[in-house]
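dumping this here so i dont lose it again. seq + smiles for guanosine-5'-diphosphate
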Amino acid sequence: MPENPLLLLELGWGHFFQQQLSLEEWETATPVRVFALNRHLVDCVGEGGRQKFSLPHAWLHYSVEDLPTVGDWLLIDGDGQPLRLLERTSLFKRMASGNESRVQLMAANVDTLFIVTSCNDEFNLSRLERYLAMALDAGVEPVVVLTKVDLIEDAEAFRTQAGILRPNLVVEAVNAKDASVIEILHPWCRVGQTVALVGSSGVGKSTLVNTLYTSVVQETGATREGDAKGRHTTTSRSLHLLPSGGLLLDSPGMRELQLSDCEVGVATLFEEIEAVARNCRFNDCRHRGEAGCAVEAAAERDEIDPRRLANYLKLKVEQERADETLVEKRRREKNLSKTYKRVQGQKRLDGDD
Ligand SMILES: Nc1nc2c(ncn2[C@@H]2O[C@H](COP(=O)(O)OP(=O)(O)O)[C@@H](O)[C@H]2O)c(=O)[nH]1
Ligand SMILES: [Mg+2]
Ligand SMILES: [Zn+2]
């Protein structure tokens, strides 16, 4: 939490949010940004400093996507009560774990997603594509951060391979332990810019965060075994102010984000395959042995990279599964509400309400 009062611009405010306010709201309401959430307690920061409040009771009936998450902008009234949530520039969500296929919001209004991977066996193009699809789906600019360049002779091969996954994709090769990282990642960590990180365990996310803070605030793989007392570890989703002026959205769940319902992201990332697929004979062609499949024909002519095609098909199947569970859930909810209405109607008839 920032100690000193900040300007709205320093908190990430901009035209996109400002133009959502009516004239009246502009005069009477105050924008605040959600820095942390604890159940229904919302921890916000605005130009007036830090403010905490509980979600109004009426909001508890809102659908999940209409409730605030970390990074969101809220308008509050003169009494510090939340009035409404502002529209987001980007949104990360995932399916909650467990059998309940419930959507869970992870982060809002993130500008850049650092996709962290290292120059070793962990480096995997299909995994990168998975994260890229997520970023594109959320509406966030992806930047690939290749760590551990200091441990290899030449990082160029890794950089080139990652770079062709998407046109104009930025790939930065770094030693996460070295202060040069601050300079290299600065274009995305300027005042008011919000960043988040994803990547597998051990790639150097905590190390990067530590270096960006230029002080040890998180335990890393290297320090975990030793004396970790008194160190800050991220256990909940929260926004943090970086010394560079940027805002880091940190969340353990965010870091190992699973692809869910990212159809648009998958379609955007694999647009060259989607373009070919438009020539398949059948609209719903699954590119697995159907007659007149243009994608398979192109693959046979070596016009599509087999690894990329395999990953595309795999991610598409996952999307379909996620969709099915969502459809299933909506149907269940509908049935439930029908049952509820029937029971209520019956009660009224019985006069025992
Ligand atoms: N040499 C070197 N080691 C690194 C680099 N990045 C991370 N490490 C080490 O890799 C291990 C795992 O890093 P950590 O930040 O805990 O990974 P996380 O699981 O992604 O948070 C630690 O021992 C780090 O010191 C790097 O760029 N160069
Ligand atoms: Mg870590
Ligand atoms: Zn096809």
